[in-house]
Amino acid sequence: MNDEVLLQGAGRKLPASLDIFFASIDAYIDFDPARAYTPKELEPYDALSDRFLRAFESSIRYFRTLEGVREVAPSESFRDLLNRREKYRAITSTGAWLEMRDTRNRIAHEYLPEEQAKLYRAIVGPAATELLHVRSTIGGAAA
């Protein structure tokens, strides 16, 4: 399979994962850590977390595919990949993406309501802003 076909495939998956993530963002209601939620009431928050994970991973997969097609050599680290994407203005901040990776890693391990509330705020705030930027740059400008 040639590189451009791989890039097109990644380029189709990314907008779809971003769109579904933003559907959860649009429906988001602040999480109250003092409230006892029923399992049914927690479903939108679980969906938000899952959709964030997919959007984040799809973005990284797209960045790596784009790099493999357009760059002479691959980045040696995740930070190098992000720095390269920031240089091309595909992301606004390497630091924001490192925070997003931390949020991604913490999602599976946080069960205290106060910590969950922090994670949801990070997802609907800075992470959503970065992913919105990515959505605006895919389609050629992110090269």
From TrEMBL:
It comes from the Bacteria. SUPFAM superfamilies: Nucleotidyltransferase substrate binding subunit/domain. This is Nucleotidyltransferase. It comes from Aromatoleum evansii.
